Amino acid sequence: MNAKSALAGGLMSAALLLACTSALAAKAESGTVVSLRGGTLERLDNGAWKPLAAGHKVATGERLRTGKAAVAVIEFPAVGRFVMGPASEIEMGREPKDFTTKMNRGALWMQSALPAGGRAAISTPIAIAGVRGTAFSMVFGEGEKAVCACTCAGNIEVTSPDGRKLNVPKGEYVAIDAGQSVPAKAQASAPVLAEKGTVFDFCQACHVVGGKGQLKADWRQ
């Protein structure tokens, strides 16, 4: 093989390696709509909201919204599973190793599948809930007036705009009003979870899917 052939072969191998690497990276950074019930799921595309369905791909950084009664399940293999509650609007995270999803309104539950050293968070104008290897529910149900973070398993850390932090362990929640500091401690979630018709109904860790507020038999475990 002459030098010219060797160079061409080397360039072709490099191009193939780059293409494969890019394809794997794209696959790791894209998500899938696992299921959709009760209404619509849309993404913002060139200034217009366009419908998504089960099986469709979702990219990092995309803005999504659900209809008034819709619940959508979206999975990112390198991050975890997200459940969007009714009338929610979010912007998916952009960085796989530090996946911060912005929530403008509604409710979002996450079950993480983070790699070692990875972290994720749900950010609102009022507070940020950070997570490492756990599952949690974040509720932002009153526009920009209040935010609530409830932990299904593991622990999360809630940070307010003034920099105060609060650990929220399994089975507890913290509610923050706009302009107020983080409360001194988290509270037990049981009294709120037991109320039918609350925004927590969509949480698949504690409630029967489509059960109109019915709790799972093992929800306390």
Characterise the protein shown here.
By secondary structure, the chain is mostly beta strands. The protein has one domain (31-202): Jelly Rolls, CATH 2.60.120. Helices cover 14% and strands 43% of the residues. It has a 17-stranded mixed sheet that branches. Strand 2 (41-45) and strand 3 form a beta hairpin. It is globular and about 45 Å long. 34% of the residues are buried.
Distance between the termini: 67 Å
Number of discrete helical segments: 2
Pattern of helices and strands: HEEEEEEEEEEEEEEEEEH
Mean pLDDT: 79
Structural class by helix and strand composition: mainly beta
Shape: globular
Backbone CA Rg: 20 Å
Helix fraction bin: 10-25%
How much β-strand is present in the residues?
Answer: 35-45%
Largest sheet: 17 strands, mixed
The CATH class, by name, is Mainly Beta
Give the beta-strand count. 17
Write a short abstract of this structure:
By secondary structure, the protein is mainly β.
Name the features.
single chain, mainly beta, Jelly Rolls, 2 helices, 17 strands, about 15% helix, about 45% strand
List the helices and strands and how they pair.
Blueprint: H1 3-29, E1 30-37, E2 41-45, E3 48-52, E4 57-59, E5 63-66, E6 71-76, E7 80-84, E8 89-91, E9 98-112, E10 119-123, E11 128-131, E12 135-140, E13 146-153, E14 155-159, E15 165-169, E16 172-177, E17 187-188, H2 190-193
Parallel strand pairs: 9-10
Antiparallel strand pairs: 1-4, 1-6, 2-3, 2-5, 5-8, 6-7, 7-9, 8-9, 9-12, 10-11, 11-14, 12-13, 13-16, 14-15, 16-17
